[in-house]
Amino acid sequence: MIITILAAFFSLIGLMVIHELGHFILAKKFGVKVEEFGVGYPPRIFGIKKGETIYSLNLIPFGAFVKVYGEQGGIEDYHSFSGKPMWQRFAIVLGGVVSFWIVAIIILSVVAGAWGLPTEVNDNQSVANPKVHIARIIADSPAKTAGLMVGDIVAGFEKIGDLQEFIGSNKGKEITLTVKRGEDLLEKKIIPRVSPPEGEGPLGIGLARSGLITYSWYRAPLQGVLATYDLTASVIQGWAMGLKGMLGISKIPDGLKVEFMGPLGIFDLLREYFKMGINYFLFLVALLSTALALANILPIPALDGGKMVFLAIEAIRKKPINHKLEQRVSSVFFALLIIMMIFVTVKFDIPRVF
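Given the sequence above, the corresponding structure tokens read:
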């Protein structure tokens, strides 16, 4: 129990530290003075000064920060952020975002070579830990009525054909499917239809088969890159689907649901995945790292994407934005993000976890 909690905690903190390390490395590379590199947020517990930088450990353990000289503008010193060429400032800001993707690539490369990457396969492919899961649920179908959900793993079956044969031989009879949903095993009673609508099947579900595929050491890095690309695309598609559903532009597919998750929820999810095995845990960390990269690049003040928007405006105007105005706007959005985080934690995370 303690090990799982520590693994989840240090993984989240580690991602934040590596993110700030991306800013730190590029700032140093371009000769910008870094006044402080802090793990956690103030008040400070202790700090060690090496060269021009204070390396500190702080009391509030929810992230990390880099204090860059001249980042708020108004200082044209050669060693200040605002005194550097525009492309270097963009690179320093973007460095934190890119670090998330680099972490994901490294993690997935290790997983691909050591344990194997979860991959969708057909019945004829030999893979480790094969699973048959529900990929689609049709509205007003027996599966929908029984409470099956997209992502449920059907226990006791390693091939789609075997499950389809079992369902087909029991049309009109009540059967019990045992499905794994997260850490829970659920029994669902369901009656396959004798004469289903064309293209829907007796239960009204679409099935997929997945397993773990291990790659040689020289192929694993390429698979890490490809898997990170796939995760990035999946996160974007998921966000787009959820946003369209909330705005009423399109309906969320049956069997899927939009879930909001704050820091507590993410922490609990990491803890649960750690119980499933180190490969699944690392895969989730890579997914989180990819999602954080995309979230940070959004054009929202207080995030890296917002900072890049301010830099772009400066580049177009040929003169800096008033740094006090930028600070105020960023502070307002930062406060809104904190409020939203607290709301999601209280509204969704606490009921889910406790």
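The chain has nine helices and eight strands. Try to locate this feature in the token string yourself.
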